[in-house]
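The material for today's practical consists of a large collection of protein records. Getting from the letters to the tokens is the skill we practise here. To make this concrete, we reproduce a full record directly below:
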Amino acid sequence: MHYKSDPKPVRTSIVHLFEWRWTDVADECERYLAPNGFAGVQVSPPNENLVIMTPWRPWWERYQPISYKLCSRSGNENEFRDMVTRCNNVGINIFVDAVINHMCGSGAGSGHRGTCESYFNAGVRYFPAVPYFTFDFNDRICKTPSGDIENYSDPIQVRNCRLSGLVDLAQSREDVRSKIAGYMNHLIDLGVAGFRIDASKHIWPKDINAILSKVNNLNTRWFTKGSRPFIYQEVIDLGGEGVQSSEYFRNGRVTEFRYGMQLGTVLHKWNGEKMANLKSLGENWSLMPSDKAIVFVDNHDNQRGHGAGGASILTFWNPRLYKMAVGFMLAHPYGFTRIISSYRWPRDIQHGKDLNDWVGPPSNSDGTIKPVTINPDGSCGNGWVCEHRWTQIRNMVIFRNVVHRQPITNWWDNNNNQIAFGREAKGFIVFNNDDRNLSISLPTGLPAGIYCDVISGQKEGNLCTGIQIHIAASGVGDFQINSQAEDPFIAIHVEAKL
């Protein structure tokens, strides 16, 4: 007999473990992410950043680089290397948030106030730990009076001037390109699989391209020879500005901020939107091509009112609609999906703005980040939300893996907020976001049998801890969803067949 080894399991979603320590990420790869079919982790910027004391240790201090040394609130280089090794060893890839558009704020002064205590002088643009000097910055070519970006309809100043006062690197310069590529290559040597390129909108696409051409193939200890890093670029393009996402497609994938904004609007039922409209979701919604898009319901910026999307963005603060939105995203084939794993903070919303939108991760008084503790029920303690551990979200990550590459079939809607669709013969999902109960027989396209709903529970051995759905020989199943249900959706797939 000739036995073929099992194909590598399909893994289709990454999780952003926002502000987690490297030791906690490594543990989570081994104990949770690998067994539950996640593809990888987006980690917070690992390089040295400015230590900010007013406000006290905000999350955004990590977006103010001082050097490319790997020491941050999440840990040192040894801890980072250990994390990448341990995660790769269980098949979980690490994607680094690369802050390469700028260094720290122009008004940061000088001294040793970095997370590794490297010296810098922001006023004269001197960062000897890289090293960068005055002429490595765009001050001479920015044409705005303030030196900051003043008009977003002008693509030149969006690239050549300072984003919120952050000193703007000149990626057109060969030595700047080489320093950035050197940082990325160091991370690739350690086993990193790719990069989120922060603030890509503020870097010329041709300069990103030139930097990537200097970036090495992935480490052959874990990746096949010749593998290129997975690149996704942060570009906020809601239309009507001088910079378009499409300018960046040649470099890799791009964040599709319109997706979460539009999905949130639909689930809130604002502007007359309804779930039935999701039937045409995709490029018809003026979204970018599916094979270019990184999609997410919320991210670390817009869950606290930064970035893009405004009030329509759904987050863990609204868990019922949030789980439905993430469930839809993971069931629908559009885009490459990313989930956020957040921490709680004391919101103080006044006149529509959260005055505490700056608050950093759960921390001790000396500024060290608190560990992610795991409660007996699998949820997280110490103020960590861990949305990726919510049963419904975790089980939909698995659903997406099971139905990978299958087209949408058997779409049904009531012309309002009850919808259902299948993914060929692999899975089927039903949503009820109406104010009335749903009770209907639907063709699912699934093989006959008894299936376990992975939203209300899951298959455990030969038992089902949730709702059981009987699919007849014809492929038809009966679905009942109370409009007041805590989670008004049902999802079944062939791996959850009893």
